[in-house]
Amino acid sequence: MFLKALEQRGIESTIGDASAFGRWLIEQQGGLTPSGVKVTENTALTLPYAYACINVLSQSLAHLPIELVKEETKGPRLATKHRLFNIARFTPSGKITSYDWKETLEGHRNGWGNSYCEIVRDGPFPTELPVLLPDRTEPMELKVDGSIVYQTVRRDHQRATIPAADVLHFSGLGFDGIRGYSPVALAREALGLGLAIQTFGGTFFGNGMSPKSIIESDQAPNTLAPFLEEFKKQYGSLEQANGTPVLPKGMTYKPVVINPDDAQTLETANFNRTVICGFYRVPPTFVMDLSKTTFTNASQMDLHFVKHTMIPIITNWESELNAKLLTESERRRGFHFKFDIKGLLRGAQAERFTAYHQALQDGWMNRNEVRVLEGLQEEDGLNDFLTPVNMVDVKETPTDEAPLVDSVAERMASSERRQLERIGDDIDKVSAFYNDYPQFIERNLMPLATAIEDGLDCTAAEFVADFSKRHIDKQLSQMITSVSDLNIEESAIVETYQEVKNARQNS
Known about the structure:
The chain is an alpha+beta fold. It has helices spanning 2-8, 12-15, 18-29, 41-44, 48-62, 83-89, 98-112, 183-186, 188-206, 225-235, 265-280, 295-325, 328-332, 342-345, 349-362, 367-373, 402-423, 427-451, 460-476, 490-504, and strands spanning 66-72, 75-78, 114-118, 120-122, 125-128, 131-132, 137-141, 148-153, 159-163, 167-171, 213-217, 251-255, 335-339. The radius of gyration is 37 Å and the shape is flat.
């Protein structure tokens, strides 16, 4: 009502944007906290760790590519030929880059609780997504039909009413599902305390780290004003903190000592930082609070941040983009927006290579897919999926078993060398190893033995047992002086396999 009254009286022609003037006036009268500090969305950013939390959330989202994908029979693929692919990923606004666009909107959402973006269309097709200012845009429900519209004041001070279908609205937690609460307003007391501590620290050092004092004098207080101004000028700043004050006769300087440690200033500041980090669900390590950090819990905090902080934010963005930028027909055909979060989940080199090795060994990734994830170009001949011998379909008889036999021999030789190197020349451990070794051989050879069982005069289990006994007997019969002298060659294992097969083949 207040803003409308201003506009009806023509004040906008005098002061420009009446809404902006009203907001400024309200900010001047409101926002005070018990700590005596005025807290608004703008002043909150002057608190370093509040700014750091908002900055972490905004930049973490901004560096993730937005991809338009289409679900197909063989899985999702990038919809690079769709008209929205370049708009979402590269040029959402003609004035700023995609990174700045996402960073700005997420910063608005974490500061004001809402971020807005207009959808400029050429007919039904979106062509540009300019950012709307959150302090000048309000969602409203029309009484006529209950539809939602957005009233905004553009940068040229022109007012506009935009239908909800033409506004991307990324909101936080709210009461009515339309407008999100301002995090700064909800955390006003905590932010006010942090700003008060910051101001106290500034004035403490600005006053030469000297506490308040009492100057006793026999003179009338109203005659001391010039002296006090001169005293403050000479000894009240940091540069003159170590000077020796000289007082006129009859005056006594008595400092009132208040130790900042006694006031628990540092403890309160640390607690306040933790509260703000918890409010935004940002791990303290992300704002460089390393007081309780170890290598282990820092790694776990990274994963916790992705799962419990970034995934809900990303889902919020994806839902709004899918609802407002895609048509119902496109959504039914499988088009949808998706953030590429591999960058957030990217681990250390050793962890990545271990995961790639397992994926390749299990046969659900090929080598070119791994190269693409590592930023390398694809190479010819690396598109085939590798299949371990112990994962061969037992219903299928291989037409050429030689590669499978070679694979079994390679696994056995590698395992045997590795285990014997660890054992050394301890005879008891060598005997224990070869007693348990048939179990390893069975796991690796049984799929192949099952596949060739029809051509044998024995069961697959008997074939494997015969092979295990013959191989171990050969190893233990070698004339050696040390375990390290054992001859473990893939060719010898293949030869043993062929001996057993020839002996067990149907006549």
